[in-house]
Amino acid sequence: MESETTRYLALVIRRWWIIVLVAGIAGAGAYVLRSRQPETFVAEAKVFIGNAISTFNPDRTVLETSERLASTYEQIVKFSNVLTPVMEELNIDMPLNDFRQLIGTNVIQDTPILSIQAEYDSPEMAATIANAIADSLSKTGRQNSHPNSSTCSPFSKRRLTHSISRFQKRKHSSSKSANN
Q1: Four-CA torsion 28, 29, 33, 39, nearest 10 degrees
Q2: Cross-strand bridge partners of residue 113
């Protein structure tokens, strides 16, 4: 008397070609669908919100205020007074709402660092858009703030962005040498 497992195994062995055929069709279909999609790239700019970086030893209140401001700036990024100057500067000809769909934001947890992502069909333009939005946000923050309040510090933004860029380049270089 055959066990149920043995019967299933025999069926799979007899019909192996059907399993391979289905897997091949699914793989070919996925390849065709993916090859027809336009290639897009995502670039990221990080902005330090507040003035905590400019003080030698910031207290907890300054950091907490900057973290709360970062959440507010996360929403402000998609305002028309931030995005419209970017679209004009870069000659982007599309409706504002479509442009908003290309932009993503998030606050890095427990930090006053705002991450701005831009998606576009070329890596250079994606990076240019992300950086231009960070600059526009910084300008908007300076125009709408009280002189003593915490805002996006352009010095802090450049310093932080430069540090992160250098780290990523080193990491990339070391991974290249590890692969060789």
Answers
A1: -30
A2: 48
Taking the C-alpha atoms of residue 108 and residue 72, their distance in angstroms, rounded to an integer, is 13
What is the pTM (predicted TM-score) of this model? 0.62
Task: Render the burial of 95-113: b for 16+ CB within 10 Å, e for the rest.
Answer: eeeebeebbbbebeeebbb
Is residue 163 within 8 Å of residue 171, measured between CB atoms? no
pLDDT tens, residue by residue, 150-166: 444 443 444 344 334 33
Copy the structure tokens of residue 78: 């998609």
Which CATH number applies to 41-169: 3.30.565.10, 3.30.70.1130, 3.40.630.30, 3.30.2350.10?
Answer: 3.30.70.1130
Helix (H, G, I), strand (E, B) or coil at 26: helix
- In angstroms, the CA 123 to CA 118 distance is 10
> Which stretches in the chain have pLDDT values below 50?
146-180
Give the H or E element holding residue 43.
Answer: strand 41-48
Parse the chain into domains and list their residue ranges. Answer: 4-36, 41-169
Least Cα distance to 171 among 117, 159, 124, 179 occurs for 179
Please report the pLDDT score of residue 48 as a whole number: 85
What does residue 48 show for φ and ψ, rounded to 5 degrees? Answer: -85, 120
Collapsed DSSP state (helix, strand, coil) of residue 19: helix
Per-residue burial over 49-67, b if 16 or more Cβ lie within 10 Å, else e, is: bbbbbeeeebeeebeebbb
